[in-house]
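Weekly sync notes, structure subgroup
Attendees: PM, AL, DS (notes)

Item 1: joint prediction request from the bench team. They want all two components modeled as one assembly rather than separately. Inputs as received:
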Amino acid sequence: MSGPTSIRESLLAGQQVLDRTTASIYRTQQISSNNEEVARDVVVDLGEQREALTRTRNRLRDADDELSKTRRILRRMAWHALENKILLICIIALELIIIAGMVYYKCQVAVVKSVQRVGRSANLVEKCRFRNFHKRVCAVTALNENQPHSSIVGAFGSKCACSWQNLPVAQNHARFYSSGTYPNHTKIPLPALSPTMEQGSIVSWAKNEGDKLSEGDLLAEIETDKATMGFETPEEGYLARILITAGTKDVPIGQLLCIIVENEADVAAFKDFKDDGKVVAKQNAPEPQAPAAAVVKPPAPATPVQQAKPTAAPSGAGAARPASSVGSDGFVKASPLARKMAAEKGIDLAINLILFVLNAVTSSGSNYLALQMIGGGTGPGGIIRAIDVESAQTSGMPGTVVPAASGIFLDMPVSSIRGVIAKRLTESKQTVPHYYLQTEINMDKVLRLRKEMNDMLKDEGIKISVNDFIIKASALALLKIPAANSAWMGTFIREYKTADISVAVSTDKGLITPIIFGADKKGLATIATDMKSLAAKARDGKLQPQEFQGGTFTISNLGMFGIKNFAAVINPPQACILAVGGTAAKALPDAKDAEKILVSEVMEVTLSCDHRVVDGAVGAQWLKAFKKFMETPSTMML
Amino acid sequence: MFYRGSVILRAVLPKPCSLVGKEKRNYATEATFDIARPFKFHHFPEGEKPTQASVGRDEALAMYRQMQMIRRLETAAGNLYKEKVIRGFCHLYSGQEAVAVGMRSVMQPQDSIVTAYRDHGWALVMGVDAVGVLAELTGRATGCSRGKGGSMHMYAPNFYGGNGIVGAQCPVGAGIAFGHKYLGDKGVCLTLYGDGAANQGQLFEAFNMAKLWNLPCIFICENNGYGMGTSADRAAASTNYYTRGQFVPGIWIDGMDVLAVREGTKLAMDLCREGKGPVVLEAATYRYSGHSMSDPGTSYRTREEVQEVRATRDPITSFREKMLTTDLASHDELKKIDQEVRKAIDEAVARARADPETTDLYGDVYSNCLEEEIRGTVPFEKHPHQVIGKPLNL
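Output from the run, pasted for the record:
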């Protein structure tokens, strides 16, 4: 028994050993798996570390790039700094040269002056200068008359020899002795009637050409910067010629105003005298050039610009000058005196140049100067001389105000029509108590009627517009409500018996209001033809005063511009103005069936009333009547 | 015009020859005129008062030339001002010429005069030439004050100048008269002031001292009817300026009549030379232009009024008429003078424009300048002080 038992036992023991071994193997397996996990973690960690390292390396590389970039920028900056330094030195050198030039020029003037003084004592020199002076006077007159003069004229008075020193630089109030076709005369420039006056407007002339002038006589009324002052005649004699007509505004001091002669018989000689355009030069700015060489040239014709766009060349261009006054760097070549004079006269050469380049297309006003400047001056190498500035200054429209240009804006002169508009409407808006009434007008019937009528009138060439209906309806409404057809006259109210309708017409010069007289009595066809001819006249500026002065009521229609509604300014002394907006389709409830919607053509109108004359209820009544006439046009025939 | 009627020709040598007519006409060498607007007196010593004035041909022509010269010069100055060649102050004497010319004609070499800022005419009659006056106005070195003074500061020997302060010359005039008395040179000082300045307190102080010491001073009120901006009768409680010296003898003369001015001034001067001075003399005159260049002169009077005075009372035209009606001078002769005057002034204007500007602006400000530099119009602007001339009284 023991055998099998022991076997069994040993088997059991073996079994146990096996179990233990298995358990230990299992443990070992567990440990190894644990180890494996740890190793995996380590590997992951290592990978992460590698990535971090790579990133760091990349970052370092970027930093390196940036550093090199910065180095390049710094190097460039250093280079710029060097450039700037050189430029600065250049500018300083240039300024020094300019200062030296100015000093030299001043010295030259002094030398010329001293030479003149020496010349005064030397008889021979004086004679010589006397001749030069005469030549110059001849040149001036030749310019005036466009006629050549050559020899010394016998009638030349001995006074000339004494006053020659004075004349080359200025003709301020200077007496001119008979030269060529002009007898003795005195040129009267615009005076400074107040110490601060720079320019003046001629309000009126108290004397006519040919009138006798005695000492102390009022010659003209001149508006200065402060007040309107009487200008007393500075010379006795006869007024030969008025060169600046009454009403001319902003004339600079020194511009030739009129010519006075001693003898009545000489008046006729100046009948066709024309101002040579010289603004009488300031006495204290003598021409630096040698006096004999200073022959006045006529204003140079506009010359084409070589380097500018083709459109920039003005029409009617004269011969091109050999040299341009503008260097490739845009620097305007001009003599110091020319610059000074240009600055005094408000002509900024450079600004004008810029303006010219910007505008490029113009041929009048101050831009004309720019054209000339680019064309070139009369000096060597196209340098602009004082004489060019003088001639350019006055080559604008004669007798009118030249639009003053200054960089980014352009000052336009106020035309007389604009002046009137400004004055009257300012007065209206400031003194007339306005109030406004608005209403809508159903235009369906009017439009239908208009179409029918136009179809009928097609052969006659008459076309009735909506505006004609409005004129007619307004006129009839005015007869119905005469209180609206009246004017405030200060101490009384004038009620008109006829309806004269002023119709605002826009022209390129400004607003003007031709009148349809007795519009209540006129048929639509007559109104249409009248309106057509008046509007055409207005646009051509041919309206006679009686055609636009008066009127009892005004209509202003801006419907054609797509204006929905607006409020107009009353045209005094009238009491009302009707502002008409455009006609547009509008959905409206049907009057017969409230649940239905109808689409109608509707026009909005605004009546501006003067409350001193027309009270709110009166205005409303008028508008009601007007609305009725428009909405049921057949009532206009009743 | 005021001498219509009794024209007495004292000597007509020889008689006008009717056959030859215009060609060989001889003129009177002297003529006597009534003084149309008689003198008025205030506490004036009794004695014979002239009612007529006689004048020789040469003297009359000289007076006429002087008056025309002043008129023309003032017109030129007005024009230059309107061209902005003359800047600053400028008071014109047009219309008052007879006062300066009439008084100058009876002044003796030792007599002196001091006036206000309306002094161009006086500078001219006291020996400054037209260039001196006009160049002074335009600030040129050739001006009578070397271009430093301008309109209100012109001086000449025995002409103590214009004075820019209203009435300030009156005490100065009394002082000059005191000088005459002190030196015993029998000189008389003419102290001129306007109707505006006549209301100044310092004038009455001067009256008092002058009368207290019986100074040979003639206080002359040039009453041109208007002060700066208003008429005399709106500014003065009494416009009888010749009576306003109270205890000082007064005389009123027509300042538009050069001969009346001459006779009236002579009367006053004789009194002063006798040691019975001072005298207050009122010369009724008129100014055609505004008070200064900034006054148009038509805001307190009508243009018609000015034109009426020009037509009826003008000192030059009326004197011219007198000379013509008494054959003292011919029309052509006077026209020749007019042309010569015009030429002279035209030349002077040319000089006044062209002459070099003054460089003496900071010269002779002090007789003994303790600092090398003096300030300009602003304290930051320094200019070297120059010593150019020698002081006359040191």
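Discussion: Residues 268 and 279 of chain B are 6 Å apart (CA to CA).
Action: AL to compare against the crosslinking data before next sync.
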